[in-house]
């Protein structure tokens, strides 16, 4: 296996609501929901940097496709990190997420490693860390 991830798929309760959050609220580029002509196929893809895709797919459809029953949500199983170029960028993204309807889980503050970060959760409870880390600055 090559060390590459091409798609991260988030299971969501309401595909339309999550599409609006990520597209309209956070401004991520997408063509919208595709695959509606297939049973359990409706999904929204967002283009991220480096060719990575973020996909939103209904939890029930993921359960159907995988054969794994839906279980209780646990937002601490993983987080998604969004690195930015400055402390002020952290504050700006956190404010944008809040305006979009995110729940601010942890306001931005200094970190133990010399950075600055905060957490928000999307409408389904997925945790996003917005972080300025001087050792991991984004290329753009």
Q: Can you put this structure into words, describing what you see?
A:
This protein starts with 6 loop residues before the first strand and ends in an 8-residue tail after the last strand. Helix 1 packs across helix 3. A 4-stranded mixed beta sheet has the order 1-4-3-2. Strands 5-8-7-6 form a 4-stranded mixed beta sheet, with helices on one face. It is built from 3 helices and 8 strands. The protein is globular. The model has no long low-confidence stretch (mean pLDDT 96). It is an alpha/beta fold and 140 residues long.
The whole-angstrom Rg is 16 Å
Give the overall pLDDT as a whole number: 96
End-to-end separation in angstroms reads: 28 Å
Number of strand segments: 8
Beta-strand content estimate: 25-35%
Q: Into which percent range does the helicity of residues fall?
A: 10-25%
Instruction: Return residue spans where pLDDT drops below 50 for at least 5 consecutive residues.
Output: none
* Sequence of secondary-structure elements: EHEEEHEHEEE
Assembly of the depicted chains: single chain
Give me the side-by-side strand order of the main sheet.
1-4-3-2
Query: Which structural class do you get from the secondary structure elements?
Result: alpha/beta
Total count of helical runs of at least 4 residues: 3
Shape: globular
Major sheet attributes? 4 strands, mixed
């Amino acid at each position: 296996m090559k060390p590459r991830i091409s798609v991260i798929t988030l299971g969501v309760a309401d595909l339309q609501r999550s599409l609006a959050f990520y597209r309209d609220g956070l401004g991520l580029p997408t063509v919208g929901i595709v695959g509606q002509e297939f049973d359990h196929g409706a999904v929204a893809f967002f283009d991220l940097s480096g060719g990575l895709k973020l996909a939103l797919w209904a939890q029930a459809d993921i359960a159907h496709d995988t054969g794994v029953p839906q279980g209780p949500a646990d937002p601490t199983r993983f987080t998604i990190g969004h690195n930015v170029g400055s402390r002020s960028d952290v504050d700006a993204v956190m404010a944008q997420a809040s305006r979009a309807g995110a729940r601010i889980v942890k306001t931005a503050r200094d970190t133990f490693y010399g950075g600055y970060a905060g957490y928000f959760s999307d409408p389904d409870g997925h945790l996003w860390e917005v972080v300025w880390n001087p050792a991991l600055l984004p290329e753009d």
